[in-house]
Amino acid sequence: MDRTRLALDFAPVLPPWLLALLAAAALLALAPALWRRARGAWWRALAFALILAALSGPRLVEETREVRPDIALLLLDRTDSIGAAPGRAAALEAAREQLAQRLGRLRDLEVRTAEVPEGGNQGSRAFAAMERALAEIPAARLAGVFLLSDGQVHDAPAAWAPGPEVPLHLLMPGRPGEVDRRIRLVEAPGFGIVGRAVELKLVVEDLGAPRPEGTALLTIRRDGAAPVTETVPLGREHTLSIPVERAGPNVLELLAEARPGEVSDANNRVVLNLNGVRDRLRVLLVSGEPHAGERTWRRLLKSDPGVDLVHFTILRPPEKDDLTPLNELALIAFPVRELFQVKLREFDLIVFDRFANRGILPPSYLRNIADHVRLGGALLLSVGPEYVGGASLFSTPLGQVLPARPLSPTQAILEGPFRPRVTPQGLRHPVTEGLPGANAEGREAQWGRWYRTVRAEPRAGSVLMSGAGDAPLLVLDRVGQGRVALMLSDHIWLWSRQHDGGGPQAELLRRIAHWLMREPELEEEDLVARVEDGRLLATRRSLDPAPPPEAVVTAPDGTESRAPFAPQGGRAVLDIPAGAPGLWQVTDGRRVAFAAAMPANPPEWEDLRADAGRLAALVEASGGTARHVGDGRAVPDLRRVAPGRDAGGANWAGLRQRGDHTVTGIAALPLLPPWLALALLLGVAVIAWQREAR
């Protein structure tokens, strides 16, 4: 828009300092005459004034300007805290529309709109969004900023960067004096030892309440189990003792009862993951008849820093009698009673490596081991020819928990080269799924050959690997609350020596041992869920090759929906949006998994009140205003204010008149050209001479 402006300007002939000296000299010359009130003194002063005016070069300048409109920035908060309280989002949207209409009616004003997106764990990044918007607005045209937010901003700077001439007006939903109850976690461990309790420290507090006194009911729910209720004091730290009952993720949900009249109960709930880990595992390894791979299991277990290993090796069979003195048979006596009766329950895993029953362990001790397995212990047997015949452990009370019966001595031992193979069931089991070099999708195994298989008839469990003649090679089984693994060959040590190319010996043995010790990642029948980046991810594992059923998903508000699993080998994956914070539940009809969709102490949920406390200093420094809109409160009137004037009042908000422009043309008219100045000066001089001559 082009506009014309008239202004008085000066184009002095002499430098300003010289003009000032001439003016001072004129005053000195006139002072005596003015003091004596001499005739013609004022005409003489007028003559000096004409001389100084002529030397100053006064002129009337006419400028043609291209005026640019001022810009008002409208910033709308779209973070999660706006949607936490009922009606807030609608109130801010209505305020935005009304404000945009009023701004549109103002002359020479352009309106720019931007939004504050959800910042996740960083909270509301309103000023980061403002900086991005201001980067496209010339600073000389910025008339003011309107921030429509609840005031809970987490990146407020120490000073208002645009300066005091640019007012910041904060428009908040709701009403003054709001109250909000929340749970604030003081100390929340991310993991705990299975079988022990962890301490969780929290504070239930009422923000905005004049005197937060009394108590509140706190409901504690773990993995969707029956809730437990506890009374906690308001405003004071409270400690909860949470027992860790199983390894892997334990989802805890804490819910404080709602306070009457509070803004929202969204932050009355905290959902967090407590990862259960096992303490150092105690393993008892008993090696029987010496053989080439005897140290395989010892090396594996000793390499794990989380394992305490007790290892005994039977170097001399009892039936051998060569009159060697008893004090030379062993460094220490074999503590049979202490290990298999007194301290048996202290071991998480018992390993027998080619151990034959030659009277070393009485039947009562072997029965103790079987009972220990049924009550939750773990047993691993790596067998050779000793598994066949009368000395076999299968012929003892321990045979009741073993998953495979050896065939007759004439049929049980197969001698000859073969390459171990993973069975179809093993391709789905986490212990053998994805082993490097395994047979899969029509290709043969790339592993080195073994040379002996102990043939046995499976009675229970899962056959994951097969040997010569498709005989079972690796069998895993669950017995009562415990687990058993049976390796029907003693030649796995060949892989560690890289014989015929070797194989994944360490990885396979590690997986077997960890499955026996109930590592959650190796559960063959399991359903786990988690929430990442606003999406619910659930993984279902099963040995059943049938298509997985539909998943039933329960949102935090209790809404149920169905979604299909996508098969991926031995797994099935579910991936759906999960925007609502809280506890999500997924079930396949047999198992149930829980996922927490809210981090502990998220900044966005710390305080749900609409309050200007965080931004009060910036609003005041900018000369702007902070007020509530909605809930019966209207958007303030708008005014254009000149620089230096107040930019806000009780019921109005102001925008600076910046007047940014570009001069497109200039026309100058001299007000005292030389010919006119000379004529006027001569006329004044003649009049002054006549006055003085009288």
Protein model, in words:
This protein is an alpha/beta fold and 694 residues long. The chain folds into five domains: 2-66 and 663-693, no CATH class; 69-177 and 609-659, 3-Layer(aba) Sandwich (Rossmann fold), CATH 3.40.50; 180-277, Sandwich (Immunoglobulin-like); 281-517, Rossmann fold; 526-596, Sandwich (Immunoglobulin-like). The chain has 13 helices and 38 strands. Strands 16-15-17-18-26-25-24-21 form an eight-stranded mixed sheet. Strands 4-3-5-6-35 form a five-stranded parallel sheet, with helices on both faces. It has a five-stranded mixed sheet with strand order 8-14-13-10-11, with no helix packed on it. Helix 1 (16-36) runs antiparallel to helix 2 (41-56), helix 2 (41-56) runs antiparallel to helix 13 and helix 7 runs parallel beside helix 8. The longest helix is centred in the N-terminal third of the chain and has 21 residues, at 16-36. The protein is elongated, with a radius of gyration of 45 Å. The two termini are 62 Å apart. The mean pLDDT is 84.
